[in-house]
Amino acid sequence: MAANNETSKPDRNRKWYQADLTEVNEPIRKLLENYSKVPSDKVIQHVNQIRERGFASNPYPCIGLYRFLNLTLLTHPLYPTILKRLRASPEATYLDLGCCFGQDLRQLVQDGVPSERLTGLDVEGALMECGYDLFLDRGSLRSRFVVADVFEGNGSGSEVAAAGQGVEEWARLEERGVDVLHCSAFFHLFTLERQVAAATKIARLVKRMGVLVGRQIGSVVPGDVPAISEGSVSYRHDVATFGDMWKRVGEATCTRWEVCGSMDMVGINPQSPVEDENSRRLLFTVTRLE
């Protein structure tokens, strides 16, 4: 039986489960039609079916509220530069940390980046499996998907990996280094101290002059807010506190970082169960200087 909001989710998850879509945004429609060859009249049904499966296994707000359909990297101001950098050199590497269905990774492929240069990483292998079914590219995509826990600092190739299994993927990523690391809707899930711990692990992956880009929910009043796990909290930054976090990371890792960020209302709904009147989109670029 197909998953649905009444039968497959605990009560606390219902508030971030949106009714089936009747339309999708134009960028994801173009990607599904042109990259995945989903017929135009089948796109809505296809997306709704994949969302049901994804939410049944991992009832996250980003899935229940269809936010995985927003191609966040595509709309980042640095995207043209990132695209040029990844196309130009066969040695250039990209990591999508917390990649969910791998939607941003597929957009890079559609825009001409060789897929073998791209890696997706998530703690949930089921989501990356759904990504293959969403984009219908299991037999053609040469990117690697890795199941790993950032806080453990290591992981292994999973059944969704394109090649090679059972290796210490995190160590491999550290050894090779990453030129572009995309990390959206990740840090805001955790307490401040857990964010610092994760960023310290992530910092060791980024090459000198490499960049970490992304977006997350920020706040004009930085501090703790209720998290999606009942009884827990997470920390929301403004640009200043996000910069302060990377100063701490730099001190812990003997590295130095330049942090650029901005906050706006793009994609923010104060009536949403996961946002409020203080919520903002925090868009960031973090460059490793040394």
Give a description of the structure.
- The structure is a single chain.
- With about 290 residues, this protein is of the alpha/beta class.
- The protein has helices at about 25-35, 45-55, 60-65, 80-90, 105-110, 125-135, 170-175, 190-205, 240-255, and strands spanning about 95, 120, 145-150, 155, 180, 205-220, 225, 235, 255-265, 280-290.
- The strands form two sheets. The protein has an eight-stranded mixed beta sheet, with helices on both faces.
- Strand 7 (about 225) and strand 8 form a beta hairpin.
Q: Can you summarize this structure?
A:
This protein is α/β, with parallel strands linked by helices. It has helices at residues 26-34, 43-57, 61-64, 79-88, 103-110, 125-135, 169-176, 192-203, 239-253, and strands spanning 94-97, 118-122, 144-149, 154-157, 178-182, 206-219, 223-226, 233-236, 257-264, 279-288.
Distance between the termini: 53 Å
Give the overall form. globular
SSE order, as H and E?
HHHHEHEHEEHEHEEEHEE
The overall pLDDT, averaged over residues, is 90
- Uncertain stretches: 1-10, 155-167
Rg, nearest Å: 18 Å
What labels would you give this structure?
two-stranded antiparallel ribbon, alpha/beta
What's the structural blueprint in terms of helices and strands?
Elements lengths: L25 H9 L8 H15 L3 H4 L14 H10 L5 E4 L5 H8 L7 E5 L2 H11 L8 E6 L4 E4 L11 H8 L1 E5 L9 H12 L2 E14 L3 E4 L6 E4 L2 H15 L3 E8 L14 E10 L2
Parallel strand pairs: 1-2, 1-5, 2-3, 5-6
Antiparallel strand pairs: 3-4, 6-10, 7-8, 9-10
